[in-house]
Amino acid sequence: MKYEVSIVELPAKQLVGICERMNMADAKEKCPAMWEALWLRREEVADVIESYAYGASANMEESGAFDYWATLPVSATANIPSGMKCLTLRAGKYAKCSTDLASIEMAYQFLYGEWRESEKEHSVDFTAACFERYANDWQENDTFELYVPLS
């Protein structure tokens, strides 16, 4: 499947939420549980600045293991709730496309595979976190945006 990809420039963003180490086989079970836990505790997160939530993947290994974050964007990280952590998304260029939950794995495979291999002007930054951006009223069948960092 092909996705329409645009290149966007984004500022750095501070996120606070729940993080867990997993692999793709675990993600379908673990991620929904993490989002439910975050939503039950969202009032504890101080200084939330947007009406979006961010799912970020970082520290990816060739084995397929990665850290997944279910987070909210904040203006300050002085009051991180117990059991939560802070992640900073770096400023810079990102490849962006829209997808839905049923196609998320295909969309990531497209961005990190076919699109990356055909892209002549930009290269993917494998050291930085990629992320999804969900509207706060997002429902399971709604679309959302994927962002892959570029160098």
Average pLDDT works out at 94
Total strand count, please?
8
Helix fraction bin: 10-25%
Cα separation of the termini = 25 Å
Main beta sheet strand tally, sense and closure? 8 strands, antiparallel
- Identify the overall geometry: globular
| Order of helical and strand elements | EEHEEEEHEE
**CATH classification, class level:** Alpha Beta
Query: CATH superfamily name?
Result: Regulatory factor, effector binding domain
Count up the helices: 2
Structure class: alpha+beta
Cα Rg: 15 Å
User: Per CATH, what is the topology?
Assistant: Multidrug-efflux Transporter 1 Regulator Bmrr, Chain A
Beta-strand residue fraction: 35-45%
Number of domains: 1
* Sheet with most strands: strand arrangement: 1-6-8-7-3-4-2-5
